[in-house]
Amino acid sequence: MTVHSVLAQRAGFSVDWSATKKDAYLDALTRKIENPSTGCLDAYLKPFMRDPIAYEQLATAIVQAPGLDGG
Fold first, then answer.
1. pLDDT in tens, 15-70
2. For 1, how many CA atoms within 13 A lie in the half-sphere containing its CB?
3. Among 4, 21, 48, 60, which lies 20 to 30 A Cα-Cα from 41?
4. DSSP for 1-70?
5. Which residue, among 26, 32, 30, 39, has the nearest Cα to 66 in the 3D structure?
6. What DSSP designation does 71 have?
7. CA dihedral (38, 41, 44, 47) positive or negative
8. How large is the C-alpha radius of gyration of the chain?
């Protein structure tokens, strides 16, 4: 998530991690690793694209993702 956040920031957008679902993200990430040409991770993240936030806010945005609290 950190890598994706930084790459998104460099590309001029942010990911709204608070709107994502941990299991769905991990599933899309796994499918992308298994078959990099599918575009499944891009498709999963596209609905969560937002205007860029300040670089200093990235860590806060990431920890707001559901499931990072151990639940």
1. 999 999 989 999 999 999 999 998 999 999 999 999 999 888 888 888 888 877 64
2. 22
3. 60
4. -HHHHHHHHHHT-EE-GGGS-HHHHHHHHHHHHH-TTS-HHHHHHGGGEESPPPGGGHHHHHHTSTTTT-
5. 26
6. -
7. negative
8. 12
**Total-model pTM:** 0.81
Locate 71 and state its tokens: 């639940």
Q: How far apart are CA 71 and CA 69, in angstroms?
A: 5
43 contact partners, CB below 8 Å, separation of at least 6 = 28
| C-alpha to C-alpha distance for 19 and 5, rounded to whole angstroms | 14
CA 23 to chain centre: 12
